[in-house]
Amino acid sequence: MPLTLSNRLSADLSPNTKKRTRSASPLPSKMGILSSERQTLLRRSWQRLPKQTFSDALMVDLVRKIGKHSFGDDSDAIEL
Asked: What is the DSSP letter of 20?
């Protein structure tokens, strides 16, 4: 049977069956990149960062990377 356009489209849209594979054994755990003391220090310093400071820095970085107009057509929607 020749492939017609409708047959090709339905073949493209039909879900493909996934092949089942045996799972690999888990890797042995590695030492953490940071020591436990440094992890504690990082956690404590992160908790001291005011949320408003973080969100302001995040918005400035987003606007710098993707542009102000990505958030809407209103030029006053975002003031930095």
From this structure: P
